[in-house]
């Protein structure tokens, strides 16, 4: 592809060199530069692409995109831009022949619920007969098939990987793509240039604030709202008090609520607890009518379902199809009920790994009035110590028993991590036991649960590894439970 074609939508200050140069590849990592390639110098939190210009040229780069002129002479095309991340987004789209323009793209942003809502939307669209791609925390999917996806890739991939995924999805016949759009992605302009047919705002609360993320809540909110300058139609949860601020740039608003008049309203919410089912049912009214049953607990999932219903209604899916698809949705690692442990006790897995998500989870489960609410969790190493203290405090406040165990200690002492959790538990005097081996802790709970208990295995969720001193060991709570149950039957 000619350099000129790649630069068609890029805001440039200057371009020295031949714009008709044939470009063989695009890279923002100098290690991936090949002969004849274009290297985009991106400034990151830990490194600056400009320092790798000599390496890129040595590998054969034919052109470089920079925010500042090289301090030494270079014999390649130099494209000077005000923002190399913006340039990368437009160059990536051009390199893959603008696949997003041939797809109907749905974008979700919010502090909580993006993954659940994305899965709901994907299930609805697939049930309606549309081949659908999904990009987010769980990885990248075409239907139920998971694509190869680096474990270290963020919720919303970098622009180059994002457009590469769009191209793969288009090639495999996808008509729709539903994706989680993180605040970091918006801040770093990974989605710049994409027009979202439908966007949704779920909620916002303080999160991702600190070194390497957002300076403060105001910046976090400002980044979230950027999505709605790129959407044609916007679904908004008007029960969130900041919805007007976040959707300042939005056009064609469609509203959802469980508390007030809206286009899609959820009411008569009831918890369901039956053998093998912990869920909720509700009546939807407004632009859609009917009873919806979800196989996942919590009134907040009613909000997620209303967003999914609103977005797929805009996409032309019939109400009966939406209701039927929602009834089938389960989500790995998000309030995932484990089958076969006990007919009258409930075991579930959840990804909650901070104070906010843990309190939401335990409050939700407490509403089912279990005989005992038991939680098992550990703390992540090389993460803020306050997070562990807060999670311990929340466990002590809501759980009748807490089992303190191992999560991903990374390079920290497990004993120190657990000591921090215990400090938090003391705030409310919560009962606890320490069983460091997580597998043994899970087996202990299976052997000692009682009728009417709800047991929550917290923190790992969909993860299938434990990270200890730089090594990731395979660890699946779902597999451990299933294997142990088989030994008890034999």
Word description of this protein:
By secondary structure, this protein is α/β, with parallel strands linked by helices. It has helices spanning 3-6, 53-58, 84-95, 114-127, 159-171, 183-187, 217-225, 243-246, 299-314, 319-328, 355-366, 385-398, 414-425, 438-448, 477-489, and strands at 14-16, 26-27, 38-40, 63-66, 77-80, 104-109, 132-136, 139-142, 145-146, 176-180, 196-201, 231-237, 253-257, 264-274, 277-286, 290-294, 336-337, 346-350, 373-377, 401-404, 432-434, 454-458, 465-468, 471-474. The radius of gyration is 24 Å and the shape is globular. The termini are far apart. The model has no long low-confidence stretch (mean pLDDT 93).
Question: Summary?
Answer:
The protein folds into 3 domains: 3-95, MurE/MurF, N-terminal domain (Udp-n-acetylmuramoylalanyl-d-glutamate--2,6- Diaminopimelate Ligase, Chain: A, domain 1); 99-328, Mur-like, catalytic domain (UDP-N-acetylmuramoyl-L-alanine:D-glutamate ligase, 3-Layer(aba) Sandwich); 336-489, Mur ligase, C-terminal domain (Protein-Tyrosine Phosphatase, Chain A), CATH 3.90.190.20. It is α/β, with parallel strands linked by helices.
What is the fold's blueprint, element by element?
Layout: H1 3-6, E1 14-16, E2 26-27, E3 38-40, H2 53-58, E4 63-66, E5 77-80, H3 84-95, E6 104-109, H4 114-127, E7 132-136, E8 139-142, E9 145-146, H5 159-171, E10 176-180, H6 183-187, E11 196-201, H7 217-225, E12 231-237, H8 243-246, E13 253-257, E14 264-274, E15 277-286, E16 290-294, H9 299-314, H10 319-328, E17 336-337, E18 346-350, H11 355-366, E19 373-377, H12 385-398, E20 401-404, H13 414-425, E21 432-434, H14 438-448, E22 454-458, E23 465-468, E24 471-474, H15 477-489
Parallel strand pairs: 2-3, 3-4, 4-5, 6-10, 6-11, 7-10, 11-12, 12-13, 13-14, 18-22, 19-20, 19-22, 20-21
Antiparallel strand pairs: 1-5, 7-8, 8-9, 14-15, 15-16, 17-18, 23-24
Helix pairs in contact: 3-5, 4-9, 4-10, 9-10, 11-12, 12-13, 14-15
């Amino acid at each position: 592809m000619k350099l000129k074609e790649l630069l068609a939508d890029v805001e440039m200050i200057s371009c020295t060199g031949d714009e008709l140069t044939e470009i063989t590849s695009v890279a923002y990592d100098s290690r991936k530069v090949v002969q004849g390639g274009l290297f985009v110098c991106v400034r990151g939190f830990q490194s600056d692409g400009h320092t790798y210009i000599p390496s890129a040229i040595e590998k054969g780069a034919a052109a470089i995109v920079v925010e500042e002129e090289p301090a030494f002479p270079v014999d390649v095309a130099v494209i000077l831009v005000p923002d190399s991340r913006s340039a990368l987004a437009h160059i990536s789209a051009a390199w893959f022949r603008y696949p997003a323009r041939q797809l109907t793209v749905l974008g979700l942003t919010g502090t909580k619920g993006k993954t659940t809502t994305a899965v709901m939307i994907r299930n609805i669209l697939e049930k309606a007969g549309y081949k659908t791609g999904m990009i987010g925390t769980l990885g990248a999917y075409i239907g139920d098939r998971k694509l190869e996806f680096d474990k270290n890739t963020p919720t919303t991939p970098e622009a180059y990987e994002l457009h590469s995924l769009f191209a793969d999805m288009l090639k495999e016949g996808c008509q729709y793509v539903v994706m989680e759009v993180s605040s970091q992605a918006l801040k770093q302009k990974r989605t710049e240039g994409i027009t979202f047919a439908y966007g949704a705002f779920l909620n916002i609360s303080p999160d991702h604030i600190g070194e390497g993320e957002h300076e403060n809540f105001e910046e976090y909110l400002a980044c979230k709202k950027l999505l709605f300058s790129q959407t044609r139609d916007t679904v908004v949860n008007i029960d969130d008090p900041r919805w007007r601020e976040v959707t300042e740039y939005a056009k064609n608003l469609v509203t959802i609520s469980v508390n007030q008049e809206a286009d899609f309203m959820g009411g008569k919410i009831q918890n369901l607890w039956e053998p093998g089912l912990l869920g909720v049912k509700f009546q939807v009214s407004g632009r859609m009518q009917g009873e919806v049953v979800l196989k996942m607990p919590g009134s907040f999932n009613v909000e997620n379902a209303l967003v999914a219903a609103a977005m797929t209604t805009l996409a032309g899916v019939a109400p009966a199809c939406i209701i039927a698809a929602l009834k089938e949705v389960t989500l790995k690692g998000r309030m995932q009920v484990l089958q076969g442990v006990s007919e009258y006790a409930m075991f579930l897995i959840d990804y909650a790994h901070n104070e906010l998500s843990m309190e939401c989870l335990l409050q939700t489960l407490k509403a089912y009035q279990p005989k005992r609410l038991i939680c098992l969790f550990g703390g992540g190493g090389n993460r803020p110590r306050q997070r562990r203290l807060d999670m311990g405090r929340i466990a002590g406040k809501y759980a009748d028993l807490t089992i303190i165990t191992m999560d991903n200690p990374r390079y920290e002492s497990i004993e120190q991590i657990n000591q921090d959790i215990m400090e938090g538990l003391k705030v409310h005097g919560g009962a606890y036991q320490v069983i460091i081996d997580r597998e043994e802790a899970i087996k202990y709970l299976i052997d000692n649960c009682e009728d009417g208990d709800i047991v929550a295995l917290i923190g790992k969720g969909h993860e299938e590894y434990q990270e200890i001193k730089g090594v990731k060991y395979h660890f699946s709570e779902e597999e451990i439970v299933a294997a142990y149950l088989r030994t008890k039957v034999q």
